[in-house]
Amino acid sequence: MLYLLSQHILDWAHGGEWESRLAFLRLFKYITVRSAGAAITSLVLCWWLGPVVIRWLKAQRFGQEYADKAQEAGVQHVVDKRGTPTMGGILIVLSLVLSTMLWAQWNAQVELTMLSVLVLAGLGFYDDYAKILKQSGGGTPPRVKLLTQFALAAFVGIYLWNLPAKSELFLPKAHGAFEIYKTNLVSTLMLPFYKYPLPIGVAAGVIIVALAIVGSSNAVNLTDGLDGLAIGCTLMTGFVFLFFTYLAGNIKAATYLQIPFVSGAGELTVFCAALIGAGLGFLWFNCHPAQVFMGDTGSLALGGAFGIVAVLIHQPFVLVIAGGVFVAEAMSVLLQKGWFKFTRLHTGTGQRIFLMAPLHHHFQRKGWHESQVVMRFYILCVLCAVVALATLKLR
Q1: What's the confidence (pLDDT) of residue 135?
Q2: What is the pLDDT of residue 355?
Q3: 181 CB burial (10 A radius; 0-12, 13-18, 19+)
Q4: Among 59, 139, 335, 360, which is most exposed with the fewest C-beta within 10 angstroms?
Q5: Among 39, 29, 220, 23, CA closest to 120
Q6: Is residue 198 very low, low, confident or very high in pLDDT (cuts 50, 70, 90)?
Q7: 254 touches 170 (CB < 8 A)
Q8: Contacts of 296 (CB under 8 A, 6+ apart)
Q9: Residue 76 banded pLDDT, cuts 50, 70, 90
Q10: Which is more confidently placed, 318 or 7?
Q11: Is the pLDDT of residue 149 over 80?
């Protein structure tokens, strides 16, 4: 919105006495300037709207009135969080959407990302509301959530398959020449530490798109169990994709680093910056002891956002590295449930791999304080982010 407005004003002033006075509006052409503006705007919006949203959630009694998993399991040193308002993801999504609308130049990538965020936020809101009504920790049946997520992912995959835009990969040849690979965002796969595209076909491509969006959405959701944990890890992963989206949308940088150039992907940098700003603002209220929880409203939307952004810049497997903490949390749940069912089927008694799943509760059961778990997971997330960024040069 601000970009278009600035261009209209510059066009109006062109050739007139106001042209030199309004020259500063040319700054809005730069993605870096608009990204900084988006981050600051979403941060300030979050700070401003935070107390209002928290009061509204309390007035509506949208709070967690049931014991969480750690309390039910008898973990020591756990603060009773009953009564803390949930659905705080409304604050994140609202700040993110408004800031992106103001600062981004709208294109197919931005619109598709925003659509995914809103759909998943709506699904999460419905799930949070169902939990509040039941007041038992239950919510939307898992099959309903998965069906909605896969339907969205299938729509995205098919849309990208029919999208005429393609990514371009410039690989050096002898005597300073370049060989250009024009690849489809769906039917071609890019792997970290490997610079050549791998053709996989449309069907396999749509499956990878679905796994990226659905897997990322649920992984962030599973990580959201301790004060500040999910949003802090989201911030670090967001910084990784802030760099990747900027580089993927800059043809000179993409050529130098030998990563796919995707026209228009630079505008996703503005979205990632807005996400970081909104995340920092929410962390202000979500740090221990939390004044509000993001709930599924926020976690499903944020995870889905990472999935779609990774797909749009041809880097779904970089997301696996950058979001290593999210992957570990999700895998701990899958392994725990799978091993329990397997051993119960073959021995009659279900056995566990971890003391408790997701993984952060396992360490709580081992005696770690909540703040220790969160800070140590932050350290691991920073390490994952560094490795993900290293894939830009180690190819």
Answers
A1: 61
A2: 92
A3: middle
A4: 59
A5: 220
A6: confident
A7: yes
A8: 89, 123, 124, 125, 127, 128, 139, 221, 224
A9: low
A10: 318
A11: yes
Query: Residues 58-75: what's their mean pLDDT?
Result: 67
- Range 364-390 burial, b when 16+ CB lie within 10 A, else e: beeebebeebbeebbeebeebbebbbe
Please give the DSSP secondary-structure letter assigned to residue 85. B
- 74 pLDDT higher than 70: no
Distances (CA, A) of 193 to 179, 241, 271, 387: 19, 17, 26, 11
196 conformational bin, left if phi > 0, alpha if psi -120 to 50, beta if neither = beta
Distance CA 121, CA 111 (A): 15
**DSSP summary character for residue 165:** -
Tell how strand 198-199 and strand 167-172 pair up: unpaired
| β-sheet bridge partners, residue 183 | 167
Under the banding of pLDDT at 50, 70 and 90, the label for residue 182 is confident
Residue 351: both structure tokens together: 């056995």
**Residue in this structure with the two tokens 């809005």, named with its chain if needed:** 28
Answer whether 0.90 is exceeded by the pTM. Answer: yes
What is the gyration radius of the CA atoms in the chain, in angstroms?
22
Q: DSSP class of residue 265?
A: T
| Amino acid identity for residue 41 in this structure | T
Burial pattern 105-120, b for ≥16 Cβ within 10 A else e, equals: beeebbebbbebbebb
Domain range annotation of the chain: 30-390
Which amino acid, one-letter code, is at 8?
A: H
The mean per-residue pLDDT over the stretch 386-392 comes to 95
Q: How far apart are CA 304 and CA 219, in angstroms?
A: 10
Residue type at 136 in one-letter notation? S
Question: Which H or E element spans position 188?
Answer: strand 188-189
**For residue 13, what are the CA distances in angstroms to 10, 30, 60, 341?**
5, 19, 50, 70
